[in-house]
Amino acid sequence: MTVSKEALAQSASSAEAAPSDKEGAARGTHGRGTAKAPDSWRSRLYRWDMKASPYAFISPFFIIFGAFSLVPLLYTAWYSLHNVQLSSLDTQTWAGLDNYTNLFASDFFWNALRNTFSIGLLSTVPQLAVAIWLAHMLNYRLRGSTLWRVVMLTPYATSVAAATLVFALLYQPENGMINWAFDLVGLDPVNWKESDWGSQFAISSIVIWRWTGYNALIYLAAMQAIPADLYESAALDGANRWQQFRHVTIPMLRPTILFTVVVSTIGATQLFGEPLLFGGVSGSKGGSEHQYQTLGLYMYDQGWMIGNLGKASAIAWSMFLILLVIAAINMLISRRLRKSQ
Amino acid sequence: MTTTDVTLPQVAPPDAQGRRGRRRVMGAGKHLHAGPVTYVVLALFAAVSLAPLLWTVVAASRTNARLAQTPPPFWIGGNLFKNLERAWNEAGMGTAMVNTILVASAITVGTVLFSTLAGFAFAKLQFRFSSLLLLLTIGTMMVPPQLAVVPLYLWMSDLGWANQLQTVILPTLVSAFGTFFMRQYLVGALPSELIEAARVDGASSLRVVWHVVFPAARPAMAVLGLLTFVMAWNDFLWPIIALNAENPTVQVALNQLGTGYIPDDSVIMAGALLGTLPLLIAFLLFGKQIVGGIMQGAVKG
After folding, report:
1. B53 vs A158: CB contact, 8 Å cut-off?
2. Chain B residue with Cα closest to A28
3. How confident is the model at residue B182 (pLDDT cuts 50, 70, 90)?
4. What are the contacts of A112-116 at 24+ separation with CB within 8 A?
């Protein structure tokens, strides 16, 4: 407690000191300028530079983000109210809420929403649970600790496309490595391409493979910031290793866990490349029976395979609204958690 | 509570000699030496992480007919270079690699430059609404790229930029994550006195950036550059909408391969290998920095 108070006091005093220093410096130069020529162009330029340059430095981000994300976002809403066909891009007719009513009346939309949800759950939950466990082990004093970390992160360097193509081959129902291994240990082969759960599990495993190491590193970073004396006092209270993990590590990681849940949820909502490539020729349909067509894939299929860009825009905006709802729920939960602490 | 009474006497005092006593007291992972079980489990994780990549090499070195047989091949065959050559020529992986290097480099330079400038402004300069604007910047990370894709496609078609590399480069040239990453780094790494000293000498903002900010930011710029390059190389959604088989990036070419452009699994694997190899080499060389960058970004993010 005393430490944090001291730190607070220190940062407060330095924050106070900084502006007054700056004022002093500015007054100094200004004073020199006025002594010779009042408001010389040099000092005016200098003051203008001081004022404008912060905005100049941040403007590339806002200009480019505005032009290529924010304005398009609004236009997507506009197009979602229009009939826009890929085959005739120049004729756009007003459609009102038709795209949305069509969308909500379509079984494929609800199917895609369900799939996005189930694949998201199947991939996010094990991924984060395993990542915590992995981070816990990486947090031990290890021989070659950097090497372990780099190895665990290699899947992150693999692209969605490359990873999915490899896994699609491994999961091949007739002659793939995984069904061969199943056969070896006496399990029945699974139809990883056609069955509902089999294909969704296979796609989730690609996501899990690519992102577990990345999340483990994020957890590891947070674990290393936990003060050792917390563990010492827990140990003195007689907590064994599991109890320490359960009662010290997990509560201290809570903000990081929330952060990774939010990031993975956003990622899961947009899932696209894995199911597209896993399906090969029937990829954009999400398999022969649409068994793994996600919302991201449904948008691509409607927009660029079928050519209905208006409907694709409506799907995009529906995705956004779903994300906002998830974010709101997340905020509520984290606020509840903070209060209960 | 009774458990406390029972276990307390077993706990060695903090200054106990020997690893065993120490292990019980400290508990915090980083002070513990990993036991053999930990090494075995980690080795299993490492195997799972690397096996698909290693098997890509095996599959890329075989024939399509061999891949269709049931005990799958486990060791390298003799067809690697032939398959790589086919992927390079027939599937357009050559053009794709050159394009991807251009695209990823341009995005990396832009992102690092703009993120450093904005991060410096947010970290060290005083201006109106700076904290609000920083919050806005971070908030933009919530906007999914899917939301921009339809209008961008329409505009790029109008401009006649379909299938051109700038179509892929421009929208990705800045990064909210990068801006925040550089801001967090510069808050600590760049002493305000240094900037003020330069100011007193009459240095303009650009001079300050060039002579003070860039040298101080160099380590973080390198890490951000690596992370951005990996992300740009692997970007999927927008490139496959904006580009086609005539002028692809690696990911677009792999998508063409996967959807039956060449129905030969060994060539597909050769393409996957080609598309991943440059990043794996970068990982071998800079793995430590990339790991450090992700951990740094995480702690402060």
Report:
1. yes
2. B200
3. very high
4. A112/A286, A112/A290, A112/A293, A112/A294, A112/A295, A112/A297, A112/A298, A113/A295, A113/A322, A115/A200, A115/A286, A115/A290, A115/A291, A115/A292, A115/A293, A115/A294, A116/A268, A116/A269, A116/A271, A116/A294, A116/A295, A116/A296
